[in-house]
Amino acid sequence: MNRAAAPDNLEIAQLEFLDAMTPRLNERKTEDLVEKHLRKMGYFKAANQLIVEKQSSDSPRIQKLLATASKKGGGIGRPEFIVSSKSVGDFIIVVECKASRARHQSATLG
């Protein structure tokens, strides 16, 4: 599997800028920025063997994992992006976008 490149200094600066702009962003804008960065880093290219899905997955295994992963803990979780690998079965990235970094802390994850 070709792994996406690590963020370079420009990408880190862009993410820091995004963090500084967070109070003025809404969740949809954050989703658009994340998708732009995933595309830029090659996550959507078929050659790297990654599958990028939005809010749900065709994978029965991932569907099972999301079945009780809602915000309230009793329903289906719908993260903005789910990245999995065609060649590495236990590889998964789940992205939940928020407008504010302050809303990224979970009481259950500490």
Automatic annotation (TrEMBL):
Q: Provide the protein name.
A: VRR-NUC domain-containing protein
